[in-house]
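Hi, does anyone understand the following?
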Amino acid sequence: MKCITHPDIDAVSTCARCGAGICQDCTKGTFYQIENKPLCKKCNYETGLDNDRTFKSFLRPKQIKMIIFLVTFVIGLVLFFYTKANGHTTFSSVFYMLLSWGFGFIGNFFDKNLDTRSVKNQAKDAILEVKHPIATLIGKIFGFFLMAISSPIQIIALLIGIVRVKKQINENAIVLERFISQNN
């Protein structure tokens, strides 16, 4: 078998993605690998583009969630200080703040993660909710305020996630630029 890029040179490996022959020089020049196996130049480039699309698809929902959390967080703080300044008790001021923070979890609807439970388990949960409406209501209210309390932690986690994804996008762009410059 000959190298797909250098047809006059014998292949020493095959591309892990398309199975094409790869010579020693092409094996050394690979930027991406699948299970420690090299990729041909075409598959290297396509993998870089795929990575770029994947990283960018993760970034947008995180940014939307972050904006929603920050807006509801600031509104909650404004409500807290406004109600305190107008003579409300600390309890009611904290309640309004947490109520606003709880609405920040609307941002979770922008996640692309689907419910991975089986239909049978989802149906069982729905039946339990119908059989025990008071317990379900109490649980949802408790869950809402528990999510509200964790809102500042969620903001920090989202910020870290956004920074990591942006770093991956930048690193991938550098690899793609290097690949293009070496192969032109």
The first strand starts at residue 13 and ends at 14. Residues 47-182 form one domain.
